[in-house]
Amino acid sequence: SLPRGPAMRCSPLNLCEYETSKLVRIKSVKLGSLKWALNGVILLVICIMLLWNKEYQEYDLVVSSVTTKVKGVAQTNTADFGEVVWDVVDYSPNEEKNSFFVATNFIVTKKQKQGKCPEVPHYGTLCRTDNDCKKGLWDIRSHGVQTGVCVKFDVTTKTCEVSAWCPIENTKKPPRPALLTSAENFTVLIKNNIRFPAFNFIRRNILPEVDGNYLKKCIYNQRTDPYCPIFRLGDVVQGARENFADIAVEGGVIGIQINWDCDLNRFFNSCLPKYSFRRLDEKESNRTLYPGLNFRFARYYTENGVESRTLYKAFGIRFDVMVFGKAGKFSIVQLIIYIGSTLSYYALVSDTNQIRVVKQSKKKSLQEVKPLSLHPRKV
């Protein structure tokens, strides 16, 4: 006979009943050995998971702040604007939260002044007569406001004249190779301060044993110096499996990931940063409408009493510093919860209200055999 699942009894008196399971003890060396072998395997797995996943710990997520400082000087000599020395103020004009930008390529438009000039065909309206132009019209892609006059752009093309900063930027594609390819030798100091509020634990990636002399000489290297907070930009891009000369032409976005996996227990105390790098933007120009990364800025000056400016379209690499991490510390509460939850594996018991009488079958399991009769359970 085999037990069948318990029947539902909806009587108020059942609330005052107490039931126990019936225990059947079978004397068998094979079954006994199998039982203790299974129990031993389950216990071993529980212990391994307890230690491997550190289930005895409570955890807290990291709270952090990041500051950066870029250093490096480069020199270029081009036909457009001669010999120029670029320092950090020139190639890193802005700094965002948890990120910094390094310009690697430029399109320069010199001596722009407020005036009237023909719009660039790609951004303006082609025309034949003044009737094709509308005074005061402004388009989202245009560089200025139309004057209502049709003028020559070149020998074969006419466009509507605009009031704008003239001459208008005309070059569409950045120089190749990039002007500041040497920026791969620039360095950046990353200062990362972290805190785990639940444990009141504070640390930074400039480790306590580091001094000023060490910081003047060290450069991050995953094998030889994995905890140096100073990074060579070329090494960062290479760590993201990219070529600096290629990404420097149109720009891109590189992620610098700092991972803190901390064990704050007394005997296993360990809290060190681990760095990794990856590219975050789409790098294939033919797969995206606006590849790379660029923005414009200007430097103003006065010439003969007239305000003028030099317009720069800067292409470059933005480095986003992303901090992840958690800290764990021994907790007796977590250990008790884990042990209590795993003990449920040993509490697999069955209850029954009826006995099924079946005829043994060699083709079907006993649970699937149709019962010959059903008998209520008695004391």
UniProtKB/TrEMBL annotation:
- Keyword flag Cell membrane: yes
Tell me the domain of life.
Answer: Eukaryota
List residues binding ATP: K69, V70, K71, T187, N294, F295, R296, K313
**GO cellular component assignments:** plasma membrane; postsynapse
- Intrachain disulfide bonds: C117-C166, C127-C150, C133-C160, C218-C228, C262-C271
Reactions listed under catalytic activity? Ca(2+)(in) = Ca(2+)(out)
| Chief location bin | membrane
Family assignment from sequence similarity: Belongs to the P2X receptor family.
Query: Could you identify this protein by its name?
Result: P2X purinoceptor
- Which species expresses this protein natively? Denticeps clupeoides
